[in-house]
C-alpha cells in the first residue's frame, strides 16, 4: 500500500509502508539519542543547552571561538537567549568573553579550560553512543524509485 503526500510540497511521490517504517525507525533513533544526551549531560551538571553551546564553540568551523550572533545561528536560538545561555555558562566557568580584536562592538565567546575538559568527557560519551547506535541512525532507504519493467526483452 502506498500513501500520497498531499501537502503541495511533496517531492517524488507516494510513500510506501517501508518508507513509513524507515522514517519511524529513524525518528525513534534520533529521539533515543537525544534522550541519552539529555540524561548524560544532566548527570555531569550541565543542561542540554549548555552542552550544545560548548559543542558549537569547539566545533565552529576554522576556529575555537564564535560571536553571540554566530552562536545564535548555530544553535537556532534568538540572540537574547544565547546571551543568557552564555551568561550562565560564564558564571559556571565554562566559557569566557574576550574582546574581538577587529570589531569593538563584538566579543568572542570561547571555552575555558574547565569547559574544554567537560566537553571532551561528554563528547567522548556521545561518540561512543553514536557508534552503538550506528544502524539505528542510518539514513533511511527510500522505496519511491520508479518501477521499471524489462518485459520487452531489451
Automatic annotation (TrEMBL):
Keywords: DNA-binding. InterPro entries: HTH_MarR-typ (IPR000835), MarR/SlyA-like (IPR039422), WH-like_DNA-bd_sf (IPR036388), WH_DNA-bd_sf (IPR036390). Residues 16-154 form the HTH marR-type domain. The keyword DNA-binding applies. The keyword Lyase does not apply. One of its GO terms (molecular function) is DNA-binding transcription factor activity. GO terms for biological process: response to stress. PROSITE patterns: HTH_MARR_2. This is DNA-binding MarR family transcriptional regulator. It comes from Pseudonocardia hierapolitana.
Amino acid at each position: 500500500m502506498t500513501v500520497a503526500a498531499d501537502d503541495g510540497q511533496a517531492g517524488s511521490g507516494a510513500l510506501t509502508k517501508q518508507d513509513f517504517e524507515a522514517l519511524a525507525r529513524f525518528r525513534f533513533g534520533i529521539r533515543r539519542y537525544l534522550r541519552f544526551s539529555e540524561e548524560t549531560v544532566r548527570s555531569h551538571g550541565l543542561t542540554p543547552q549548555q552542552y550544545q553551546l560548548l559543542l558549537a564553540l569547539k566545533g565552529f568551523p576554522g576556529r575555537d571561538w564564535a560571536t553571540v550572533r554566530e552562536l545564535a545561528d548555530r544553535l537556532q536560538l534568538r540572540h537574547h537567549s544565547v546571551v543568557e545561555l552564555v551568561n550562565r555558562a560564564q558564571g559556571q566557568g565554562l566559557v569566557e568573553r574576550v574582546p574581538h580584536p577587529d570589531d569593538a562592538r563584538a566579543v568572542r565567546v570561547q571555552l575555558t579550560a574547565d569547559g574544554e575538559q567537560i566537553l571532551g568527557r561528554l563528547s567522548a560519551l556521545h561518540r561512543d553512543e553514536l557508534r552503538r547506535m550506528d544502524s539505528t541512525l542510518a539514513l533511511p532507504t527510500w522505496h519511491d524509485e520508479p518501477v521499471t519493467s524489462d518485459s520487452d526483452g531489451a
